[in-house]
Design a protein that fits this description.
alpha+beta; single chain; 37% helix; globular; 39% strand
Amino acid sequence: MYVVAVLFEVTPDAAGAFLARVRQQAADSLAREAACRRFDVCVDPQAPRRVFLYELYDDRAAFDAHLASDHFKAFDREVASLVVAKRVETFALQAAGAA
C-alpha cells in the first residue's frame, strides 16, 4: 500500500473554507477512485490553520491517477489561494510486526 501524507498551512481567514473543500475532496476521492482506500482530514487542535491529510492507495500508479483526476485538479485550483505552505511525503505501509 502507498501512503501519502500532506501537511497544509492555510491563510488565517481561510481555515473554514479550506476545510469544507478538502472534506469534499476526500469524499470525492473515496467515491470515485476504487484504489483510494483511505482519505482522512485532520486538524491540529492547537493550530487550526494546520491541516494534515492521510491518504492510502493501492500503489503509486493509483496515486498518480488521483493526481490526474478532474476532481483533484479542480480542488488544487480552488484552494491554491488559500494555502500558505504545502508539504507532501510518501511512504510504504508495512504490516504490523513486519521486520
